[in-house]
From TrEMBL:
Protein name: Lrp/AsnC family transcriptional regulator
PROSITE patterns per UniProt: HTH_ASNC_2
GO cellular component: cytosol
GO biological process, one term: response to amino acid
Keyword DNA-binding belongs to the record: yes
Gene Ontology MF terms: sequence-specific DNA binding
InterPro entries: AsnC-type_HTH_dom, Dimeric_a/b-barrel, Tscrpt_reg_AsnC-like, Tscrpt_reg_AsnC/Lrp_C, WH-like_DNA-bd_sf, WH_DNA-bd_sf
Annotated HTH asnC-type domain residues: 3-63
Superkingdom to which the source organism belongs: Bacteria
Length: 150
């Protein structure tokens, strides 16, 4: 799907506040409510964006936030990634170039939960050569805004 200026402006406005109504967006953009509804539904159908609830991990009891980089055995990366996806603690799994073959973002209630995850859960996944565990000390930005409108 090709996004035009109106689509981009709709996305940018929704990123500021995803609870905005079609009528509010249409007034802001000076277009019809039907156009806004149609554009949003088309972008949703095409997978351009989705409505999600972004929770604050600390507010829901997840006090330890980590980024873990993995070195993997050749040929095992896909299987390891599939196994990592199964853990509810894991929010993100991605393959990367550079020092780590896979990187995950994971959240834990406390350090003991993290240690258990590393020593018990990850130890059972065949092909992990190394896990480089990085615990977040302070967060400066957490955003899912990718669209910038003029």
């Amino acid at each position: 799907m090709h996004l035009d200026k109106t689509d981009t402006r709709i996305l940018a406005y929704l990123q500021e506040n995803g609870k905005r109504s079609y009528s509010e967006i249409s007034r802001y953009l000076e277009v019809s409510e039907g156009m806004v509804r149609s554009r949003i539904n088309k972008m949703l159908d095409d997978g351009v964006f989705e409505f999600i609830i972004h929770t604050n991990p600390n507010k829901v009891g997840l006090q330890v936030q980590t980024i873990i980089g993995f070195s993997t055995q050749l040929g095992k990366q896909e299987n390891i990634a599939r196994e990592l996806q199964k853990f509810p603690e894991v929010r993100f799994v991605g393959a990367f170039s550079g020092k780590h073959d896979l990187i995950i973002q994971a959240y834990f209630e406390d350090n003991d939960s993290l240690v258990n995850f590393i020593n018990k859960e990850l130890a059972h996944i065949e092909g992990i050569l190394n896990a480089d565990v990085n615990v977040e000390l302070k967060q400066y930005k957490d955003s899912f805004s990718y669209v910038v409108s003029d």
